[in-house]
Amino acid sequence: MRMPTFGKMLRFIITIGLLVFVFWQSGLFSAEGRRHFLELIAQADLVFLVASFVMPSCLDFVSSVKWFLLAKGIQIEARIGQLFAYYLMGRFFNLVLPSNIGGDIIRIHLHGKKSGKRAQSAAAVFMERFTGLVALLLIVLVVAVVQSTSIDIPFMGVAILFTAVVTLVAASGDCR
Fold first, then answer.
1. pLDDT band with cut points at 50, 70 and 90 for residue 60
2. pLDDT of residue 69
């Protein structure tokens, strides 16, 4: 058996094993567990159910466009559809691997292999992640300031100040 085929088989077996474990832990192997699961799905509001499947894809597409713009900014040619496919592959690996960077490694590898610019591909993926972090910190800062009077948490002022400092340092790019 060739090594790439063995690696693919091993990944497939591990993925199936993890899925079986999750289904077993959630009780879906018993008739009662399946019945309860189907009842929950039947009770769900169809609009929210459809939105829960559509929204993540829309958000992934927006992140792919951001990645495309960052890649284009450092002279890496790419198609949005190709980057979206890489993004979805990366999302899959983020879900099945025990870390949250496995998908980024896949994205860097695939994009670097296609473009021939591995270092620039790594930089584009890093910047896509980093800009997301800065945006999240800005959102936290705005919510913390707007809701500071209604949130009864000790040291809220310190938390707001800390978030503001981290956001400003991250946004300035001066992390020495």
1. very high
2. 92
